[in-house]
Write a structure and sequence with these properties.
The protein has four helices and three strands; from the N terminus they run H-H-H-E-E-H-E. It is an alpha+beta fold. It is elongated.
C-alpha cells in the first residue's frame, strides 16, 4: 500500500465534491481584503467589505461615500494587485456598491 501526497488527492476530492468554485470564491475574498489592507492601510480598508465573487466579478460594499469614490478611482490598480496576489487574472471586473 503506497501513500499519495495530500496535494495530489485534495484537488480531485474538491472537484468530485463539487465545491471547488466555493473554495475559489472564499480564497478570492480573503486575498482581496488582505490586498486592500496592504494598499490602503487598516484605517481606510475598514470601510470596504468584500461581499461576493462569481464569474470573474468581485462585489465590494463601501460603508462610506468617500470609500466608494476611492474605489472607483483605484479600481484598476486594486483589480491588478488582487490578480497579482492570486497569481492569475481571476478578477475581470470590480463592482462597488454602497451600503
Amino acid at each position: 500500500m503506497s501513500f499519495e501526497p495530500i496535494k495530489r488527492i485534495l484537488p480531485s476530492a474538491l472537484r468530485s465534491a463539487g465545491i471547488s468554485k466555493q473554495i475559489e470564491a472564499v480564497r478570492v475574498l480573503s486575498v482581496a481584503q488582505e490586498t486592500l489592507v496592504a494598499l490602503w492601510g487598516e484605517e481606510k480598508a475598514v470601510y470596504i467589505e468584500c461581499v461576493s465573487f462569481a464569474g470573474g466579478e468581485l462585489k465590494v460594499r463601501a460603508l462610506a461615500p468617500a470609500a466608494l469614490q476611492e474605489l472607483k478611482v483605484w479600481e484598476v490598480r486594486i483589480r491588478n494587485e488582487i490578480n497579482r496576489a492570486l497569481g492569475s487574472k481571476v478578477i475581470l471586473s470590480l463592482k462597488a456598491i454602497q451600503r
